[in-house]
Amino acid sequence: MNDCEEYRERLADWHMGRLDAAAAAGLERHLNNCADCREALAATAFVLDSINNLQAPEPPANMKVDFRAMLDDFKAKEKKPVFRDRVWSWLLQPRLPLAYGLIILLCIGGAYLLGRSNKQGHEIQELHAGVQEQKQTMMLAMLDNPLASERIKAVSYTNDLKKVDDKVIDALFTTLNNDPNVNVRLSALEALAALGNHPEVRTGLIKSISTQDSPVIQLAIADVMLKLQEKGSISPFKQLLKQRGLDENVRDKVKQTITKLI
Amino acid sequence: MLQVKAGDLERMSLLFQRHHRALFGFLFHLTQRREASEDMVQTVFYRMLKYRNSFTEGSSFSGWMYHIARNVLKDQKFGFDNKYDPIDALEDKIAGSTSADDSLEKKQSRQQLYDALAMLSEGDREILMLNRMKELNYPEISEIMGISQGAARVRVSRAVEELKKIFIKKGIKKDS
Question: What pTM does this model have?
């Protein structure tokens, strides 16, 4: 490595003020006598200044509010560990997988033996029901997760549930009407749309029309209502049209939806 | 942070106040995604609360925070997408400036820089973004990246050289 190469490796540090006094003095002496390295320094300085001066958008004000909510929630959970959490953490202890393995093997063995005695169908059904119940509990717990991506994952678990009960439907509506993140709300809406054969889902969706303020969700609800051919939504949609400051795209979409439903 | 570790969780709000802006900037510059960066800031603070016992006395809080941020970033598997958020849409939200005083040249040079950064490897981009933080020096950067201080020095210098080459290739010059 010649001298210049060695000095050039230090240019970035020199520009950032990260060289010790002796090394800086040595480099400066070299720079005084080397036009090529001075040119290299100017280019290094330009690159570093460009990056250092790069500005990020202002973080939105709601970030502080979200943090406050997360911190309060965390503090509350720390203070009084919820019974359910304690059960979960006990069940999820690292030393338990072997025990689970054995239990599963026993269940399968049991189911097999029972099957041989013509009771197979009934027992396996029970086993399935147990798994379904576990999935449901997990989904409901994950909906409280502070991470939006985890909550979306929780909502998507609804597709795996063979039978959806009131608890799940309630949780999905709570998410649709209250979750701070629009993407989570949107995924809850999609999950609910797939459950359109439940009358209570249809009623809940109709009610939700008036509570939503995000144009994205309003547009999506209009699509869902059209798909479900839900005439009960006409009246709340008409109410929505009276709302001041309604997004123009939403207004057009709602008008079209009403025409198609009538 | 030691007070948080000792159980005074409320102290975390002071740390949030002090660091969330820089952390948001770091995540934004590496992903170009506003909402995802917001979410990731919350995740980083959540993880710091949850794993507060892993913070060791005498170590740098910023170093620890960016180490966690890097893991969160990896979990999200975001690529650098310089076309994701149109820069124009961000103009009125840029910290400390308004769209009125942000000239067209400024916008163009920022876009040029994002385009150039997109041509770097992920590791080079990351180390340059850590290097620009005033609160991080080589001991912290090496800790965050899991490499020696000497290696961190060399990697910063090489990343700068790479970016210099890209600048030349793209004809980016001072006052261009």
Answer: 0.55
